[in-house]
Amino acid sequence: MTKDCYNVSFLCTGNSARSIIAEAILNQEGAGKFKAYSAGSKPGTAPPPNTLDLLEGLNHDIGFARSKSWDEFSGPDAPKMDLVFTVCDNAAAEGSEAVKRIAFAETYRMLRSRISIFVNLPIATLDRMALQRNVDTIGKAPAPAN
After folding, report:
1. How far apart are alpha carbons 106 and 112 in whole angstroms?
2. pLDDT in tens, 135-146
3. Which class is domain 6-140?
């Protein structure tokens, strides 16, 4: 795969938390090399406040953040995706607001760790099979300790 910039989509059912967080991280970490998007099969009306508060608190621009259907990326004028990742397991953070904030922060930390590894792969020199093996390995990597 040899390109100047790769379009990457993060998919999640509701496009409200994980996929939007991943989009923000990749657009920051991979600026110039990657352009990230996110979408969902059943998007909510808006990202939850915890998602936006977390991203804004970590100096991410949140102007892009909205829940959207993956149908937006199926038309002829939609950007062509080079890579697509699913980031949802239908788990929702439950409990007090403090517990939810911790869960969102942990999700961010795990996604940032994996996306940072991904951004540093020598993608231009990898064939599709090698890229898939690397991505599979990254996806199975445990989150770093605090």
Report:
1. 10
2. 999 988 776 666
3. alpha beta
